[in-house]
Structures are given as C-alpha cells and as structure tokens.
Specification:
By secondary structure, the protein is α/β, with parallel strands linked by helices. Helices cover 38% and strands 15% of the residues.
C-alpha cells in the first residue's frame, strides 16, 4: 500500500544526518529541533501557529480541551472515519452526534448538519478524508450562524489546499478554529514513529494548546490548568523536517499516480473513481474507489500479490464503543453504502506506471 522503504532510500543521507545530529546533541524531548520543525511547518501552512504533539489522537483531544467544553456538550462529526475522532469525544465525556457523508467526497455533508444542531451543540469536526476536503465554506457559515467551533481533522489531507468563495487559498487544517493532523508513518507527511500537531491562526488558542500539551504549564513546575503530556520527540521532528522539504514534490507524485489510475479506471462501469469538490485539491493519501463487488476485487488483487485495504468496513455509529451516541438504530445511508463498497488501492510517491497497470489489470 505504501513503500516507505523506497522513500527512505531517496532521502537516506539527509535523514541519517538529521537523526545523527539529534543523538549527538543529547536533546531528545522538545528543544530546538522540535521548534525548528514547528516553524517550518507553520511556513508551509501559510503562517498558522503549529504546536507539535505525540500523535494525531492526542491532537484531537487537546483541541477539544482547549475549547473548554463541558460534559454533555455535543460535538457533530462523521461516522465514516477512523475511531479516534469519536473516541476523544467520549474520553472527555462529551456527546458525539453523527451526521451522514457526501457521496462523492466521503466527507461530512454540511447540508445535513443543521438538522443535528441542538442547544447543547458546541463544535463540528469535519474529517478531510483520503486527502481531500469537506465543504468548508458551508461548514464555517453554519458555525458562524450557530456560534459553534470547527476543528478540522486534517490527518489525511496535509498537502491539499482549499480555495474559499472569496478567492482565498487555505492549506488544509487552517480554515477552522483549530486543525489537527497526524504524522503516522504512512501519512503523506509521516515520521518513523508516532507524531502529531495542532494548527490555529488564533494566538490565544495557540498559547492555551501549548500549555495543555505540556501538563497545563507555561513554566516548569507551574501548572495553570489541567493538561496532558503529549510531546513530539526530537528525532521524529528531525525526520519530519527533512520530509517536509520534499512534501510538495511527493504530493505531486501522488497526484500523477492518481491521474494514471483515473485514466485506466474512469471508463470501467463497475468502478467509481475518487471525487473532490472543485474548491479543493486532492493530495491522495489514499486512492479509494467504489466497487459493487468489493470483496471479489480484493480477493483477485490478493491472489495477484497486490495490496488493498478497506477504509472503513464498519460505520462508527454501529460499534459498541460509541453506543453513548445513542444512534445505533439510526440509518446513515451514504456512510453505510460506502462501508460496503470502498476499496483503497496502492498509492505512494514511488509507485510506477507499470505497478498501477498491474493493479488495474487484476481488479
């Protein structure tokens, strides 16, 4: 699905030197290497504040903590995503409210959000799934109308951009009140372990987020609020700094690979290729198609020695962990259909045209 070894070999000298430099320095937690990466990533994102943390799940939890929500407050999100998005809502004793997805983008459908808003609603978390965006113009308009926060789960969309109705171009994760992302190794910008970050354009939120991620403390041994221990280690930051220098080229390579897939698959009646809004680019963290007989296709690929994955086979609202949402009897037809039909195919910067042709030939 993702040849991380090939990517490492391209950047081996830079990465090895970066790791060695951290080891020689003896500064493994926070420190100048982490700060340098935060500054580099901030520049990549157009100047938004960046606070690195231990992983993408922590980023979501810290984002919700920074908004000072109270137990029982409601957070609207999608049932078609990885469980972490809803998991942190439950951990903080908030109530998750699921809303169905858009058929084309797999992201939360803003047309269905207002019907789910109640007097206890405080926040919306759109998940920019597979590398493209939810309709953020509509999302922010709804949030403004109802005085809600928006946390963008941009774990899969780093490298994508969104052009708003007024013509402003935003890097993924910089449109809402807070953005979160993950540096899990398979992500478009991935480290060699766990890592994550929070993104905001609000100086006050940035300061609060940094405190929460550091035990609620600005100064050592002085704890102003309840926080957590969530830090990006310096070795991972050094690796990310190297990879960030090459991220635009790597995303362009993913887009080129997706174009080959699209050319080969778009005429196939049994297959629906990935869609995205005209306002949004697609960074193709995953290349996810729809198939009426997904299981047969996956079996054929496996027999040919080709990887494929189902993201995601089970909707969150049907899973026992999220029974507190009280929506297990609800029907979200677009989400449930996607769970039956989606199949993600191998895509990464080093994939070749011949490999893509083999994938398509075996579907």
């Amino acid at each position: 699905m993702n040849d991380l070894g090939a990517q490492y070999l391209r950047y081996k000298n830079e990465i090895d030197a970066a790791i060695s430099s951290v080891i020689r320095s003896g500064q493994f937690i926070n420190g100048p290497v982490v700060r340098r990466f935060e500054e580099q990533f901030s520049a990549f994102l157009g100047g938004a504040h960046v606070i690195a943390c231990a992983n993408g799940t922590d980023a979501l939890q810290i984002a919700l903590m920074a908004l000072d929500l109270q137990p029982g407050d409601e957070v609207i999100t999608t049932p078609f995503t990885f469980g972490a998005t809803a998991e942190v809502i439950g951990l903080l004793k908030l109530k998750v409210v699921f809303v169905d997805i858009d058929q084309s983008t797999f992201c939360i459908d803003p047309a269905k959000i207002e019907a789910a808003i109640t007097p206890r609603t405080r926040c919306i978390i759109p998940v920019h799934l597979f590398g493209t965006h939810a309709d953020m113009d509509s999302m922010m308009a709804i949030a403004k109308k109802h005085d809600l926060y928006v946390i963008e789960d941009a774990a899969q969309s780093v490298g994508a951009s969104y052009t708003s109705k007024n013509g402003d171009i935003f890097a993924s994760g910089t449109m809402g009140h807070i953005g979160t992302t993950s540096f899990f190794p398979s992500k478009n910008l991935g480290c060699y372990g766990d890592g994550g970050a929070l993104i905001t354009r609000d100086q006050n939120l940035a300061e609060r987020i940094r405190m929460i991620a550091n035990h609620g403390s600005k100064k050592k041994y002085q704890h102003e609020i309840i926080g957590v221990n969530s830090r990006l280690d310096a070795i991972q930051a050094a690796i990310l700094s190297v990879k960030l220098d090459h991220l635009r080229a790597d995303v362009e390579a993913r887009i080129a690979a997706a174009a080959i897939y699209n050319h080969l698959l778009s005429s196939r009646s049994y297959c629906v290729t990935p869609g995205h809004l005209p306002e949004s680019t697609h960074s193709y963290h995953q290349y996810t198609i729809r198939l009426s007989d997904r299981n047969e296709a996956a079996s054929r690929l496996k027999a040919a020695g080709v990887s494929s994955m189902v993201y995601y086979p089970f909707p969150l609202h049907k899973q026992p962990a999220f029974a507190f949402a009280e929506q297990q009897d609800s029907i979200f037809p677009e989400c449930e259909q996607a769970c039956r039909e989606v199949l993600s195919l191998p895509i990464y910067p080093d994939i070749t045209k011949e490999q893509i042709q083999k994938v398509v030939a075996n579907i």
